[in-house]
Amino acid sequence: MRLFVALVPPEETLEALRTAVGAGRRHTPDLRWAPPGDWHITLVFLGEVAGEDLADLSAVLGAEAGAHAPFEIAVRGWGRFPQDRARSSVLWAGVSGDTGALGRLALGMRAAARSVRIPVDTRPYVPHVTVARSRRPRDLADTVHALGPLRGRPWSARHVHLVESRPGADDPYRTVRTWTLGWEPDPRSPERSTS
User: Fold this and answer.
1) pTM of the shown model
2) pLDDT digits (tens, 9 = 90+) for 138-163
3) Of 68, 128, 159, 161, which is the active-site residue?
4) N or C: which end of the chain has fewer CB within 10 A?
């Protein structure tokens, strides 16, 4: 299974993104614009995980989620990857609010995955929601200008999702597990699965 751990914005936030991205789509229709169902804030990308490793991985991720209290964040502003070049291939919505708590959660999820021998990225964490990609790097400054300001309302991040990525499927992202932040799992009861 190709997996990642993410936060999913609430409907009100997704609606604000839809409105802003609509202007970007009209301005630059040749970008590969992500559909709203694909919008999420990745905490850690896990890559290919063998089925026999899923139980151990779920246990450590669930315990890590329980160690973090809910926090307030919002989607605000736009950014691009790579960030330090005039030509970029990824366009994203930024995240503001308690980014310290968000960063600690992402680092905790990385450490939890490593504890069960899942190799994860070591680059600095940049929280974002990917909204579009370009096949070749290009100057996206005009597209960012067309998107206009993005000032989503703050929302409380309360749930962490383990998501399976299924490229080419009708529904490319399937939630495998969901944990509530600040909730200590009971080892005698199964985790909530949304699959």
Assistant:
1) 0.89
2) 999 999 999 999 988 999 999 999 99
3) 128
4) C
